[in-house]
Design a protein that fits this description.
single chain; about 375 residues; alpha+beta; Adenine-n6-DNA-methyltransferase TaqI, Chain A, domain 2; 6-stranded mixed beta sheet; 11 helices; Restrct_endonuc_typeI_TRD_sf; Type-I_RE_S_subunit; Restriction modification system DNA specificity domain protein
């Protein structure tokens, strides 16, 4: 019986430290911030344009490099660069050393539970914990035979094929969403006939409490982050642990099934984001930055959700938001409820609501399949 051989992560992957003082002059057009990386996905689907946003980033990455989010590693943000650009200082740029383990397997090691558990363990800082490459480099990685590496590469290639199809499905769903926006709300002959307060009675904020940077387990109490409200979907795992009894006693609103939630404070692009709660999680509560909407009886919540998403994506909510910071904007309850909107008949609302609910169910199914694939990827990596 042979003992298991290991190598350090630093033996199979190294940090890349390229910088630029003038990214546009050096030929770079796009940049990546942590907000552009999706948790648990190696695919980059969003980016910023340097000429438009003028970011202060100086770190350079090249196509094929691995981008690893060192800030708040519990968010599990890492991806493969598909173009050259610059990125946030909160992102570690890595590349395989082509030693011991095939380069094509390295991204899957980086996006594994083994790596994230180590990154979380080695991170420091209470509000915004960060890890470092020199700490990640100390992680022990099981050394695989060439035959085993080839087998795993073939399996992961099949996963990649399926994920490409899933992205195509996602693009098609986005096309349908955008068509619905134009069909339901953007027509020039639809004039406002009411205010948002005509369909929402009250906006109830949660409470601001002291919390940890890590998420609460099922047996613990957590306060939701604004990222728990995401493009129509409720993500209760996006929460922060609350341990002090005096702080727990302040928490009042535990979102119930079918509740409509709205963020009153968020980034300029996401302020006013909304979602409908699909299932109740007894251990998480709303913060002061998330409203629970008391909807007028008879109003279709899925129609209202689509209206709120339209108001956000069209920039109408951003226009009534205030704040000097470019990273966080706020909307007051009075300004929110005073927005002019078009309110269709109850029958029209119901028709629109049915379509929205069906599309959301399709998207949830797609997300569920994606989560299952991530879990299987981890098991293959560990096998």
């Amino acid at each position: 019986m042979t003992s298991v051989q290991t190598v350090k992560f630093g033996d199979i992957c190294r940090e890349v430290k390229l910088t630029t003082k003038d990214p546009i002059a050096d030929g770079y057009e796009r940049y990546i911030g942590l907000e552009h990386l999706d948790s648990g996905s190696l695919k980059i689907k969003r980016w910023g344009v340097i000429a438009e946003d003028n970011p202060s980033f100086t770190r350079v990455f090249k196509k094929g490099h691995i981008l690893f989010g060192k800030r708040r590693p519990y968010l599990k943000k890492a991806a493969i660069a598909e173009f050259d650009g610059i990125c946030s200082g909160d992102i570690i740029v890595m590349e395989p050393t082509n030693s011991f383990i095939a380069a094509s397997l390295i991204p899957n090691i980086v996006q594994s539970e083994l790596m994230w558990e180590w990154a979380i363990k080695t991170s420091s800082g209470s509000l915004s914990p960060r890890t470092k490459f020199k700490l990640l480099a100390e992680l022990d990685i099981t050394l695989m035979s060439n035959a085993e590496q080839i087998r795993k590469i073939k399996v992961f290639n099949k996963f990649d094929d399926v994920e490409r199809l899933q992205y195509d499905v996602g693009d098609s769903l986005n096309l349908v969403w955008n068509t619905l926006y134009r069909e339901f709300y953007s027509s020039s002959d639809i004039a406002p006939n009411g205010k948002l307060r005509d369909v929402i009675h009250v906006l109830q904020p949660g409470k601001s409490v002291k919390s940890a940077s890590t998420a609460a387990r099922k047996t613990q109490i957590g306060v939701l982050k604004v990222s728990a409200v995401s493009g129509g979907f409720y993500k209760p795992s996006e929460n922060k642990l609350v341990t002090q009894e005096s702080e727990i006693e302040k928490l009042q609103i535990c979102p119930d099934k079918s509740d409509l939630l709205i963020t009153r404070a968020n980034t300029p692009q996401l302020v006013g984001d909304s979602c409908i709660v699909q299932d109740k999680f007894e251990n998480v509560f709303t913060p002061d930055k998330i409203w629970r909407a008391q909807v007028v009886p008879g109003v279709d919540k899925y129609w209202l959700l689509q209206l709120l998403q339209y108001l956000r994506k069209s920039g109408m909510l951003g226009k009534v938001a205030t704040g000097t910071s470019n990273s966080m904007k706020n909307i007051s309850q009075s300004k929110m409820l005073d927005i002019d909107v078009y309110i269709p008949t109850a029958l029209e609302q119901e028709k629109i609501g049915r379509v929205i609910k069906c599309l959301m169910q399709l998207e949830q199914t797609r997300e569920s399949h994606s989560s299952s694939r991530s879990e299987i990827r981890n098991r293959v990596m560990e096998a």
